[in-house]
Sequence to fold (271 residues):
Amino acid sequence: MERRVHFISGLPRSGSTLLAALLSQNPRFQAGMSGPLGGAFNTLLGELSDRNEYSVFISDAQRQRMLRSLFDAYYGPEYGAEVVFDTNRAWCNKLPQLKTLFPQGKVIACVRHVSWIIDSVEQLVRKNAFRPSSIFNYQSGGTVYSRAEGLANGEGLVGYAYNALKEAFYGDDTANLMLLRYETLVSNPARAIAAVYNFIGEKPHAHDVDNISYQADEFDLRAGTPGLHTVRRKVEARERTSVLPPDVFHRFENDMFWLDPALNPRGVLVV
Fold:
């Protein structure tokens, strides 16, 4: 069986785990939280580069087969799914490679108001006040200001993903790219899921947005961040007040470039 492979990427705390949990209700699909393939892909790509003294023996065709084989090996016969969605923030800056390896593969990038992403992480930090998080290298010091700065810098959890998203959005390989807004996913999940199915060319499936099941408690505990991948049973928008100081919140409020059609020269689909 030739599996179809698609990718979930985009910004953290923007609905990727929720989207995967919904998609996994379809028995033909395999989807989950961020996994190891993105890191393995990057590592293998580096090892096959010219820094390897034996690279003279490695052709581009061999590189492509070896990179493709990562997916074949990881999603072995025990999965049994016809369609696989692999989740990783790294996929947004790998569109040229993915286009070659998976010509029919689609990339669904989850996005969200950046201020609320920072707020969501800060809420987790405060909720787990006695468990320093891997997000901040288990450091127990710092303030909301230093944490926001660390998240937003180019190597931070949010900054890296944001820059990778812009690389994808403004690059040459946008035909297979779709941006899915968190705000759409939680306020109108039926519309969001229908758009995903239409984008990947699959027949619709009945999804139960009132009864979602997904667990990653062991991973979250090991990361020192219980609740990091918690998915509520029912999909719904929830109004609340931000825990961020106003100046921190306002710092990121104009970063949603995907909302402005004038900043979308390639006509990337935004749902």
Observations:
- The CA atoms of residues 93 and 167 lie 6 Å apart.
